[in-house]
TrEMBL record, chains A, B, C, D:
Pfam family of the protein (one): Formyl_trans_N
Protein name: Formyltetrahydrofolate deformylase
Family assignment from sequence similarity: Belongs to the PurU family.
InterPro entries the record matches: ACT-like_dom_sf (IPR045865), ACT_dom (IPR002912), Formyl-FH4-Hydrolase_C (IPR041729), Formyl_transf_N (IPR002376), Formyl_transf_N_sf (IPR036477), PurU (IPR004810), PurU_ACT (IPR044074)
Keyword Transcription regulation carried by entry: no
GO MF annotations in UniProt: formyltetrahydrofolate deformylase activity
UniProt keyword terms in alphabetical order: Hydrolase, One-carbon metabolism, Purine biosynthesis
Lineage: Bacteria, Bacillati, Bacillota, Bacilli, Bacillales
Keyword Transport attached: no
Length: 284, 284, 284, 284
């Protein structure tokens, strides 16, 4: 039996008549057997085309396909990303003291739900060392002080260098610098609480409690320089009532946070998210 | 067979040892047969007690019970509200041009889901006259101009006087004056769109579309002088994706709006909502 | 400005390398500008390919495209369906006495959410005549008796002949004969309550109440000869609690029924549902 | 400052005028400061009264209160249960090979979300030993064979004797005997998948996949001699689509299973569930 390799091609291209034919013909030339194809156009006149093609590469020489895609890219000013499932993405996890998101990610990873390698966990605290190490994941504690934040980030960048494809902030309670973010554009995923209505600023759970909200939510997004304002990947809510104390809200918040973050990480790891400006196209 | 009348008693009282005994003993003295009792204390030391008691008044003389409740009220500085289901609440509906909320309310009312009378619909436009009148509800068109807003509100107040117990703003696109609101404290229910995160200001659906949100929601609340900031009665969300246009978001928004508003109106009509400061206790 | 016509092409085909290229090339030859393309393969080796392509037909001659698709169909043993949005689908609604589903469908139709024409409503009762006629929809009352069911169905078929593309059973409480169903294969949509676990047989709401279920649901499906066992189009649930009486469950059931049915009708009307055996592929 | 102890009283009683007064007066006599009271009557004429009272026992002598409750119980043929939060419930967990439910329970327990002690985990396999022991929970492997099932259950009963208050079957893939169940009436919680419609028998996920369901669910219930038919504590669903393989359905099923089971365990541990025949009253 021939070995089958599942490959994902993501394309972002200016709208152009025949673009889908062009891409699928190229794939056919390379003997790619398409399993799923999703395509979306923002505007059929002068919009942007988003495509996700998942194919089986039986006799496909991926390197040659990639070369042809580069030619296509130059010709049509399109962006593409080719990812083979044989080569798992490498994911770093940043944490502080809360373990709920970290544990959910580790569990889904060990259950083969999230197809990644986890080369390391980085934290500004030492609290979660055992959690990581007991699952065989190296843990690096990089203490942070306001004065020497640059230094700490530099240390993290050295640890990450050449080792990871994307970063998950699993309740990492520090703000990353624009310099750090620029090294991983649309490759850093964050989770934060969300409320209807929004409570911007300190102590959102206390303020949500004081307002008597009936739903609490969580939003997973890519990190940009605008704090908590990057492209949204996934969101969900949980129903609560007046019997929840402010602490009870936090607990309910943890449940929805870990679920939404893990879902967003799955979508990213499976190349189901395309970013366009400050929004995402998610093919799920 | 004796006639059975279902009555609801709502109580808001400072925390005090024995308060529930006091109330249930009084009800027993008046031969009230308790069917449901919900009680919540914000803090057992010096908090507030909220109670909702639904009872069957077989041999209960409600007027005498009410007199005794007034005595209790003075003694313990508590607030109470006694509502007999024999006497349906009277609900006015304010609309502008959108019919989705109005139609949902009318349908639930005709299906005996919302136990109210609807003496009138008031609008700043004439568009929905037929909808109201075809269901036998008087419709009053009160045109609005910025200069003569007071006059219009005055007209509305005259129409409402002595005729209604609470008001529902079913996509009524005008801001009520503090004077108007003061006539119906915690008796005006509004519905508005909600997003995670919030988009304050103009064109929220367009901005939610531009941000690529994955959920859109609606919040029903009592109207206070802080626009859209009153006590929340009910909320819900609906999942959307990148295939929704800005118009598609508006359509999805209508569905969740009408559902949430109708649910909030039911809760209010059945005396299941107690307001405390800027939050609600909802016993459902 | 040129007139733009949005057209949808649905394809079900045996798996074959290059099939997507073949289809998109054909569309390109006919100057079809693809806006959305969704494709799914059940198995990349010997499965079935499902495709939905939505395109703008600016200079496309649809009749010629259709001819070429017929050639393709014979060549590759594939099924296709070509639907132009210029030609709205014609939907008949069958009802009995409950109005909630009918009213929701009419409202969404009048709000331009469901792009169909409604040439007639047929009922085995006369109760909902006014609802239909007040919205300008002809209403036909065909009384039913066990003995003369065939005759009644025959009458309905005559009314429908050449006039409708699909039928919605909006709480129509009669079982259609295999003969009737065979005239509208995968073109009759039904809604029925669903519970976790299932309560098969009479009085499901009473039995769900007796079991104390926490969720009630609804399932919209295509009608086949296996009662309530046809391909599922859409499902949803609603949370309930012990305070709901058996009647309260029925009310909650109505809300979820009308929502799920209307959603399924939208999906069908927009050609987003492909049926394969006893299951559906829904591209939403 | 006085030490405050939170105590929960559950009561199931035949309907009787004044019952709530009787109970709350007794509590007042014992200086119990009521924080929450929920009460529900199935029928105000000759139904059953369910009450949950949570109170602060500052100067309350619980033993004396219990004696008085026993008197009350004999007098009115009522059942009661008095649980002090100072004395945490002891929960045994039964597992087979799947770890998702076990891990979720352990995490919520370690996060102080589920107020119990976990004296032991029992399994018919040795696979999850490390998971339990790494969290300091003794793990007992009791191999099972069809011929000697009685013996294995006997062994389990000896391990549990006097040590646990309730049992959670966290994906325990064995059927307990009526004898075993009779030792823990309404004290064994199980989780199982649920579908709309139901798929009774083997391979439900494969059959749900073949039917193309749009929702998969999970039901947590008390174990009775009718397999998977005991009183329902909690249920929830998760939306899926045609892109989920049968394995993908199983993964989605795991997520909803662990969430629903953990929620049901919380409700039970906090004495929020009253069982009546084959249904539950859940005060949440």
């Amino acid at each position: 039996m021939q070995k089958r390799n599942r490959v994902t091609l993501l394309i972002t291209s200016p709208e152009k008549l025949g673009m889908i034919s062009t891409v699928t013909n190229l794939l056919l030339d390379h003997k790619a057997n398409i399993v799923h194809l999703d395509q979306h156009t923002t505007d059929p006149q002068d919009g942007i085309i988003f495509m996700r093609v998942e194919f089986e590469a039986v006799d496909t020489e991926l390197q040659k396909l990639e070369e042809d895609l580069h030619v296509l890219s130059r010709e049509h000013a399109l962006d593409f990303q080719l990812s083979s499932q044989e080569k798992r993405k490498r994911m770093a996890i940043f944490v502080s003291k809360s373990d709920h998101c970290l544990l959910e990610l580790i569990w889904r990873w060990k259950s083969n739900e999230i197809p990644v390698d986890i080369p390391l966990v980085i934290s500004n605290h030492d609290d979660l060392r055992e959690v990581a190490e007991s699952h065989g994941i190296p843990y690096y504690h990089i203490p942070l002080s306001k004065e020497r934040k640059d230094e700490a980030e530099q240390k993290a960048l050295e640890l990450l260098k050449g080792k990871v494809d994307f970063i998950v902030l699993a309740r990492y309670m520090q703000i990353l610098s624009p310099n750090f973010i620029s090294k991983f554009p649309n490759q850093i995923i964050n989770i934060h609480h969300s409320f209807l209505p929004a409570f911007v600023g300190a102590n959102p759970y206390v303020r949500a409690f004081n307002r008597g909200v009936k739903l609490i939510g969580a939003t997973a997004h890519y990190v940009t320089n605008d704090l908590d304002e990057g492209p949204i990947i996934e969101q969900d809510v949980q129903r609560i009532n007046h019997r929840y104390s402010a602490d009870g809200l936090k607990i309910a918040g943890r449940h929805v946070e870990k679920r939404v973050l893990a879902e967003a990480v799955s979508l990213h790891a499976e190349d189901k998210v395309l970013v366009h400006g400050n929004k995402t196209i998610v093919f799920k």
